[in-house]
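Appendix B. One record, verbatim.
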Amino acid sequence: MTFLARAARGSRPVNTTQDCRGPITQRRAFALSVALFVLASPRTQLSAQAPGFAPLTIGDVTLSGSLRTRLESWKWFGGNSNGTYTYPGTLVRIALSQSRPRLDWNAELSVPLLVALPEQPLGAGPAGLGANYFVANDRNRHAASVFAKQAFVRFKRFGGVNGQSLKVGRMEFFDGAEASPKSTTLAALKRDRVASRLLANFGFTHVQRSFDGFLYALDRPALNVTVLAVRPTQGVFQVDGWGELNISVLYGALTREISGAVATSEWRVFALEYDDRRHGITKTDNRPLAARRLDQDHIDVGTFGFHYIGAVERAPGTIDVLLWGAAQIGSWGELAHRAGAFAVEGGWQPRTRLAPWIRGGLDYASGDGDPDDTTHGTFFQVLPTPRLYARFPFFNLMNSVDTFGEVMLKPSARVATRIDVHSLRLADGRDLWYQGGGAFQSATFGYMGEAVAGQHGLATLYDASADVTLSNHIGIVAYFAHASGGAASANSYAAQNSAELGYLELTIRF
């Protein structure tokens, strides 16, 4: 995207230190954050968004957007003062769009604002996402920016074929979400347990990522073909999201829905190629640091996989099943890359009061058993939104075994609750405990790893959340998690081998 690259050279994020010399001092930044919380309160917005509220239009151009503000409180493993902190983060998105019979376009700006980030000692290990923001933004406690989140044109009836389209520009993309099932159960499974496992916008962060390139789609009533060729943008933890990274991503998928009177299902087969040609990056793996620094060859990994989801409607309730799997081949710098991952899950929705949905399953991702051989065996999660699958994001789908159970309840049409229990282990104790969600800077690999001294038990995680819909435009989420560490995490955090995360989030859409 040439025009985006030009804009990137002329735009810098606003990063300030704790003193009063920057454009946003600590006092002013905190006051601005509080003002956003107040202005975004339900009382203020409900009066403005009464029944019959319609988006603002200028002719046939639509103005839309969202404001998401979240107060996060972290208590990281180890009990150190730099790992216990609370900070607010806000993300504002404003878009202009237009839909015509043969063409759509969208231009969207993103405004992340981070305040009172936790200052971290030089050389300290990761201590939660707040620490990641601090380090990624030149070790400043406050950071803000404005950049182009999306800027694309979509040609409909491309080539004169109904259902065929071509999107060109900067866009968001979520692997596995190319088609929308008619079944509400399958749609929920795709949104929460299939989509974004390998390629997505890292939507939980206050900056997120986008992709520059093109997306081809052929949509039929029960069939979808998708081809994507893009480069990811920087962002995620760094507030400057203008530039793109020297990483090429190719993705293709075929999705088929099968509908019946009682049972419905969907399957997808996909292929994804990731080619990372950034220079001077030290890879994160279980080799000695000296060996990793000498290995300057690029990463070229091909991932081939599938998913199957199915639901059977019976009088007592709905039974669902989910299968997902992926195999990887390619090169990890100087090493050959061979890895794999899979998920097996099932659920039951009895037709009773509170609309319960009881689910459980196993997610597995391979690790590397020998740091001294010529093969890298750790499954590589590419560029996902890991928080969908690790709601307390201290782990991901790399060298991990996640056995979980969860219960979802709906006390009313506007309230949804969820309680999870996860038993977390490492697939191979000779590998690392990995964290992160992929590349986001030219000089940062994107994944972090900690040695575990041959141990496997990572943690037992308990978490609970409540989503409250106040109106069609306003939602609140409350979340709390406690992780009781095991022998693997004790290798790094023996003093206090537990961690907690709690947050309160408000989202307004207009």
